[in-house]
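Researcher: We're teaching a course module on how sequence relates to structure. For the next exercise, students receive a sequence and then see the predicted structure as tokens, so they can try to spot secondary structure elements on their own. Here is the exercise chain.
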Amino acid sequence: MLSEGWDANNVTHILGLRAFGSQLLCEQVVGRALRRLDYTVNPETGMLDPEYADIYGVPFSVIPFKGRPKDQPAVVDDTPRNHVKADPRRARYEIRFPVVEGYAFALRRNLIKADVGKMEKLMLEPDQNPRAVFVKPQVGINLGGPTGGAGFEAELQDREAYYASVHLQTIKFEITRQLVAALTEGVAGAEPKLKLRSRHQLFPQVMRLVDEYVARKVDWRGSDPCERGLETYAGRLVERLVTATQPNDEQGEPPLLPILNRYKPIGSTKDVDFKTKRPCHPTNRSHIDQVVLDTATWEKSASFHLEASKAVKFYARNDHLELAIPYEYYGVSHVYLPDFVVRLANDTTLLLEIKGYEDDQDRAKHQAANRWVAAVNHWG
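Model: And here is the predicted structure for the students to work with:
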């Protein structure tokens, strides 16, 4: 039974009760018990503690394996310790949310908008993407240690020739062209937002958005303005503006609306039910009876403040809750899962994310979360 498609991390025993027609099937069956229960690194060894599964009746003629040591007791208890689930007695704390898979982007008059002031910044990264490098040609093979006098002279390779050969207006037109194409043709296999729309009407609107975003939201960090023409920055700028672009409902266009999962349009905290070895902390003001502590401080501190705050009615940890926000980064589709969902005292629902260092992908997640919130609020 447990061949392909079975994915659970709490399988501790496998019993073979039928004939196996191939060694591959044996490997698939055994593989069902290879999901770890816990990914916490042991601070003493710097490695993950071993976990074992008891397997009977499956021939091990080819598969290499290492069993539990017989001459010493088990080093770790690999059984699930905590059962995290929704408490039916706290049904008043239930949080429901739409399961969003995409967005309905309809236009009647080809009018779009983007609130550039609320968009995330684009920071150039000269510390991670060097603008110059020394290159030393090499002929043959050098033996021994490096020497300063042998071989060819080092050459400086920089972007000065690129800066001198390209115009800022050309870069702006190319970014605008890519943005219009992304809106009308789609990106990374995604369905286009504005299919069959008039590009000559969209182009000037998009160009104004590009001008405003570059003027207000690009942190150059001492770099040449032509740097924004590099693919690494131009691609992020296009993705950022695609995410922020919405129908101009102030001019009569239909607002941005979510496209819900057809099989499960609404998610709920009542569906949370899983087992884990990770440490947990009990709750009082949550439909879910425990909060899983992925780190020793952040989730525990957040749970403490959410339990104590007068501004909070109730909350839920987004663990196995599957509140996922779709977004794209470098042309690849991802999903973003905020840490907590909080119902405030004024009946506003808050998506709460706890962050240390914020990188550019985090800013892309936040931009996508703003789009998700706007569409969900329009939907009501």
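Model: If you want an answer key for the exercise: DSSP finds seven helices and 21 strands in the chain. The first helix runs from residue 23 to 31.
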